[in-house]
Design brief:
Elements (H helix, E strand, L loop, with lengths): L3 E7 L2 E6 L5 E5 L13 H23 L8 E9 L4 E10 L9
Antiparallel strand pairs: 1-2, 2-3, 4-5
């Protein structure tokens, strides 16, 4: 079964539907690449998905260690390269939400 449906709606914008839940994400090309920059760009989503995956895996593992990662965050910085245009680096910085969230 497909995971999602991506539809190009014009003006460098897409709508992306998660088929299981019906959740929708809109993407726009960034302003430095002919777009409006009014939403996540596709490469923003790639970098953001990596951060989301990282914290989700950490949360799965820390359940076994009686550590609650609630309110923790990952700040993601995507660096683009011009020729050819692509993600060249992705910096992620983890911030632990609250040390007092530790289970007793």
């Amino acid at each position: 079964m497909p995971t999602s449906k991506v539809t190009y709606v014009g003006e460098l914008r897409t709508t992306c539907i998660h088929l299981q839940s019906g959740t929708e994400i809109i993407t726009d090309a960034p302003t430095d690449n002919h777009g409006k920059g009014e939403a996540f760009s596709p490469t923003d989503l790639v970098a953001t998905a990596l951060g989301s995956c990282m914290v989700s895996i950490m949360a799965i593992k820390t359940k076994d260690l009686d550590i609650d990662l609630k309110d923790s965050s990952i700040s993601v910085t995507k660096i683009m390269q011009a020729e050819p245009r692509r993600i060249s680096k992705n910096h992620s910085s983890f911030r632990y939400g609250n040390y007092n969230n530790r289970k007793k």
